[in-house]
């Protein structure tokens, strides 16, 4: 069972506006908490005394919330309180963690819940995805691995027997791609054509293919659209190559994570060896350098540091140290 809180405001005391904002607030609470109407047991509203034209509970019923018990009460007048405000407390049957939702003029009531994004860009093997995952867990926000999306595009092209250098064909395959990014216990699951490909996209041949298909404008356009949509809905840490420069140029926090090619190749070597792949360090390093060249020299959104990004060279740093440094920079800015 969870208790979810929320609030919103109206610009004036009109039934039409109350209906609109109550529906918006409840729909958003349900969406963010992944609730079906049948999960919601009880919705308790209170509103400031300057709202008289319609009970929020009645607006909820009119908006189609017919199953949960509903209750509204007027708050006493409190000097200095946010005017024309509707608050809600919703009890629901789920074991997920509650996500509180504050909309419109009420956003300022919980500045700590304000949506924000952290952009982590950098070359392959710089350690950014490990750090991104840990950071998202500590901040209790979503982690979006954008590289996984380009890898899924590449896997699709490989599976359809497409020629990776045929831009028109690759673009057409990707334009119809059935790709979903889902989350299970906080971990990203990449679903291609209805099947979980989170492991398959890590195969070494997919890495090089991803670097090739990610250079095509139509592929990038489609992926960037999906990434922006996900980031607009909640706070998240995104890692990639162009997050700070192109996907979210207004991201609140930007970092460029880098390391020497030797260190990066060694990290990838250890990672692949641990997974049982038979890899050769020298060819892996060559491949990493070639991917760097591809990713940095392509004409559309190349791998580049955003002007306002903080650079962190992780060549001689452990993951914990990198994480601490990022958290410290975030703290300095808030
Ligand atoms: O981070 P990664 O190795 O999983 O990324 C796979 C490829 O996708 C990489 O070669 C570059 C590309 N990529 C990109 O162009 N833009 C992103 N935002 C993320 C990855």
Please characterize this protein's 3D structure.
The protein has 334 residues and is an alpha/beta fold. It folds into two domains: 2-110, RutC-like (60s Ribosomal Protein L30, Chain: A, 2-Layer Sandwich), CATH 3.30.1330; 117-331, P-loop containing nucleotide triphosphate hydrolases (Rossmann fold). A five-stranded mixed β-sheet has the order 3-2-4-1-5, covered by helices on one side. A five-stranded parallel β-sheet has the order 7-11-6-12-13, with helices on both faces. Strands 8-9-10 form a three-stranded antiparallel β-sheet, covered by helices on one side. Helix 3 (128-139) crosses helix 11 (319-333) and helix 9 packs across helix 10 (281-297). The chain is built from eleven helices and 13 strands. Bound molecules: 2'-deoxycytidine-5'-monophosphate.
Give the names of the bound compounds: 2'-deoxycytidine-5'-monophosphate
Rg of Cα set: 23 Å
Class derived from helix and strand content: alpha/beta
| CATH level 1 name of the largest domain | Alpha Beta
What average pLDDT do the residues reach? 93
Give the quaternary arrangement of the chains. Answer: single chain
What is the CATH H-level superfamily of the largest domain?
P-loop containing nucleotide triphosphate hydrolases
How many strand segments? Answer: 13
Task: Please provide the ordered H/E string of secondary-structure elements.
Answer: EHEHEEEEHEHHEEEHHEHEHHEH
**Given the structure, what is the number of helices?**
11
How far apart lie the N and C ends? 33 Å
State the CATH architecture of the largest domain. Answer: 3-Layer(aba) Sandwich
Shape: elongated
Overall number of domains: 2
Helix content: 40-55%
Biggest sheet features: 5 strands, mixed
Give me the CATH fold name of the largest domain: Rossmann fold
Strand content: 15-25%
Given as residue ranges, the uncertain stretches (5+ residues, pLDDT < 50) are none
